[in-house]
Amino acid sequence: MKRVVITGQGAISALGHSAAETLEAMREGRCGIGELDIRDVERLSIRIGGQVRGYDPEAEFNRQQIALYDRFTQFTLLAAREAIAQSGLSFSGELAAQSGVVLGTAGGGVNTWDENYRTVYEDGKNRVHPFVVPKLMNNAAASHVSMEHNLKGPSFTVATACASSNHAMGQAFNMIRSGMAKVMITGGSESMLCFGGVKAWEGLRVMSRDACRPFSANRNGMVQGEGAAVFVFEEYESAKARGAEILAEVIGFAMTSDASDIVMPSKQGAARAIAGAMKDAKVNPEQVGYINAHGTGTAANDKTECAAVADVFGHHADRLMISSTKSMHGHLIGGTGAVELLACIMALKDGVIAPTIGYEEPDPECALDVVPNEARDAKVDVVLSNAFAFGGLNAVLALRKAP
Amino acid sequence: MTENVKEKIIEIIAEQAVLEPSDVTEESTLEDLGIDSMGLVECIFAIEEAFDIQVPFNANEPTKSDFDISSVASIVKAVEALVAEQAA
To answer: What residues form the membrane-spanning segments (chain A) (predicted)?
Structure first.
């Protein structure tokens, strides 16, 4: 089996317009969540979110591109450019044929659906722009990354709600590990902070009106974010041969299904995915120093996740660190695992553990070291990144310090 | 009316081709102007919006349509007919 390393990262989120800016904010424990600035916000009962601020599509793309790129595609393309530039790779010939794109998104072009439903239902028009379909389709972002960078190998989009990115990155990892691909551009994006997108989430009554406070006893729900993160996964020997800077190694992946409930999480399903990722990575629980939690800030997720971690790690659960960066960038749904992988890489590469901000009151049901409110310097060798989706689909990645 | 229809169509086509309206003549074909099949459907959308008409055009058989897209002049003529039909 081939070894798989990460040689590029890129991002845009409520915390910044690049991976570096996003990580800087995580180090500072800065909160990117604020009042939503969207049309008809006054008709929403949830009015906060982790919106990408100060973003001007026209500064990044021309008019014809904007006609084809939904916001989730725009975010993906920007993150992919940054990641691929950092990797130093360019794709032609045999390398292009053996390199692909696997991205996660839950909703795809939600803004495009929203705007055009508005056109036909609210404005009563009987005609929509010709590119509505290619703009809203979930695979639009993957396809545009493939076109922009000449990636001609296996490419597709994964939609598993809040675990989409982790499932996508798990696929990318296994495709390189098995020899199916040399380089995979992977990660995910989401942009559903529009009237219809937020209204749909309101219906579930799981959203907080004031803040995302994972693991805190006074937590009162999740807060939605938007953005993208994209990584370059590359076969280790090739990366080493060309002298690429290696950010981290991907060493394991596991996915499970709860097979129980469409929204309520299951401790067993989560625990099996966590244990499975460690088994796949051939590491012992004691080697894991940090877990980037799914940590949505809902009552149900956080206590179930902590119970699953306690079950899998036993005594070591009290020695490892576990934090949820959703407290800062919000829940990016299908893009969330990708933005959170940045925190995992930072832990391994820079020895900085991103905090869980907004932590106010200990919860006996979440009695782990959640790295409250301030980032911490710590040396860790192995980290995990959890994602547990609605629908009971769980995906956990394991990473190690660069070889 | 005729001048208005022509001017508006040239304006739409020029915008799609990223040209000045003065660079678009009645004899120009969409191909000459560098407008591809995607650009064509965008032009038709813009024409429908501008004149509030339904253009009978199927991208699967562009030449079989009653709507003649072989040149700027033919498009103007076809749109005029549709506008007249609408008014009748």
So the answer is: none
Cβ distance of A130 and B42 shorter than 8 Å: yes
**Domains along chain B with CATH numbers:** 2-87 (1.10.1200.10)
DSSP string computed for B12-45: HHHHHHT--GGG--TT--TTTTT--HHHHHHHHH
Partner A contacted by B72 (CB < 8 A) = no
Residues of B in contact with A129 (CB under 8 A): 42, 45
Residue-wise pLDDT for A349-403, tens only, equals 999 999 999 999 999 999 999 999 999 999 999 999 999 999 999 999 999 999 9
Check if A331 is active-site: yes
Q: A254-400 adopts what CATH topology?
A: Peroxisomal Thiolase; Chain A, domain 1 (3.40.47)
Statement: A4-241 belongs to CATH 1.20.120.80:
no
Cβ <8 Å between A131 and B48: no
Question: Are B42 and A131 a contacting pair at CB < 8 A?
Answer: yes
Shortest distance between the Cα of B46 and any Cα of chain A, in A, equals: 9
Q: Using one digit for the tens of pLDDT, what is the confidence trace for A240-291?
A: 999 999 999 999 999 999 999 999 999 999 999 999 999 999 999 999 999 9
Q: Delimit the domains of chain A by residue range.
A: 4-241, 254-400
Chain A positions touching B47 (Cβ under 8 A) are none
What ipTM goes with this model?
Answer: 0.82
Residue A47, classified by CB atoms within 10 Å of its CB into exposed (0-12), middle (13-18) or buried (19+), is: middle
**Is A88 exposed, middle or buried, given 0-12, 13-18 or 19+ CB atoms closer than 10 A?**
middle
Mean per-residue pLDDT, A33-53? 98
